[in-house]
Amino acid sequence: MLKVQGVKVMYTFKKEERLCSKKFLDELFNNGSSFLIYPFRVSHLPVKLPVKFPVQLVVTAPKRRFRRAHDRNLIKRRVRELYRLGKQEHLYQALTENNIQLLLSVQYVGKEILDYSFMEKKLLAVFRQLVEIYCITDDKGN
Question: What is the reported pTM?
Answer without folding.
Answer: 0.87
